[in-house]
Design brief:
39% helix, alpha+beta, 9 strands, binds flavin mononucleotide, 16% strand, 340 residues, NADH Oxidase
């Protein structure tokens, strides 16, 4: 398991005089810090001459909550964004080819080095935010997020080929109701509970993936009850829907990230947009967390779509605000995700 504390200091350890493979490995360490559904880390990488390929690891997919690998692809897109930024930070100019092909659907993207350039100030800032970004599942304080920051996050989504819409007033209320409804539907499903419990760790550090009870309890971390209880217990009665509704309503920002299309390349764009937004928020001192149950249940996703004008596809429901620092989560070692 990678221990992430102290990562900021590693920036100086970039092997300037090392081989391409050593430099690529260094940058890949940052790709691994991307968020992923249930912290499943569903990605694999192959280093080629002057390029890095990203592959989906579908053995880490979530058959119940993500049957089409939509969130899996978004997670891979977030890792792709980190990789791009890390390479740019160390002076590589890169071209990203999104390459899902019918004959090789697992190969998602190829990042090719096309030259050298002085890193832009923005890549440095985004890069430094990578190890500081963590999902924060606690409640946020009432301080608003400034319109200037929100505007920048909306622009960040656009630059990656996605859109971010801030929900306000009645739409925010309606979305919070959909979150509670999503909890009810999912937590009443024993298959969903079994899948969730399979990704629970006991928090003692033995696993390099999955969810532990670090931070506050959430739908995903599954309280501190442990896998057996999650599998067998009817969460409905524990008030989870009402708590998540409160979290949604109490967050200064509730926002939908979406795309115009619904296919692997759009999901990869959503993942890059997601990570651009999350790192931008981190730089601005804003914390974020996910309430994706309203998107994972397809009937609710359509209702959420209607709230956003229904021109395209909601991919992620984010809440944002100010809070105390959230803990880091574990990651698998680079050697476990590197294809030779
Ligand atoms: C596509 C996607 C969907 C997610 N959905 C949820 C969610 O619905 N609820 C939640 O609490 N966390 C959600 N997460 C956050 C992950 O659980 C989190 O990224 C993972 O546990 C790693 O922790 P970190 O983000 O702090 O590094 C989601 C992450 C991704 C990338």
């Amino acid at each position: 398991m990678s221990v992430l504390a102290g990562w900021q200091t590693i920036e100086q350890d970039f092997p300037r005089n090392g081989s391409w493979e050593e430099q690529a490995c260094f940058c890949l360490q940052y790709a691994l810090l991307a968020p992923s559904t249930h912290n499943a880390q569903p990605w694999l990488f192959r280093i080629r001459a002057g390029a890095i390929e990203l592959q989906a690891d579908r053995s880490r997919g979530l058959a119940v909550s993500d049957p089409f690998d939509r969130e899996l692809s978004i997670s891979c897109g977030a890792a792709l964004f980190n990789l791009r930024i890390a390479l740019q930070r160390f002076g590589f100019q890169v071209e990203v080819e999104v390459v899902p092909r019918a004959d090789d659907p697992d190969l998602l993207a190829r990042v090719t080095v096309v030259g050298r350039a002085r890193p832009a100030a923005e890549s440095r800032l985004l890069f430094q935010a990578i190890p500081r970004r963590h999902t924060n599942r606690g409640s946020f304080d009432s301080r608003p997020v400034s319109p200037r920051i929100l505007h920048e996050l909306v622009q960040a989504a656009r630059r990656e080929g996605a859109w971010l819409e801030i929900l306000e007033g009645d739409n925010k209320l309606a979305a919070a109701d959909l979150v509670a409804e999503g909890d009810r539907v999912q937590l009443a499903d024993p298959h969903f509970r079994r899948e969730l419990s399979a990704w629970q760790s006991d928090g003692r550090g033995a696993r390099a993936d999955g969810l532990s009870a670090l931070g506050l309890p959430t739908r995903e971390t599954g309280f501190e009850l442990g896998p057996l209880l999650i599998r067998t217990f009817d969460w409905y009665s524990l008030g989870r829907p009402a708590q998540d509704r409160e979290l949604a309503l109490g967050s200064p920002v509730l926002a939908v990230l979406g795309t115009r299309h619904e296919e692997t390349s759009a999901w990869l764009a959503a993942g890059q947009a997601l990570q651009h937004i999350l790192l931008g928020a981190t730089i601005a001192g804003v914390h974020a967390s996910f309430l994706n149950q309203a998107i994972e249940v397809s009937a609710l996703r359509q209702r959420l779509c209607a709230l956003t004008g229904c021109v395209s596809f909601p991919q992620i429901l984010l809440r944002m605000g100010h809070s105390n620092a959230a803990p880091a989560t574990p990651r698998r070692k680079l050697e476990d995700v590197l294809l030779r």
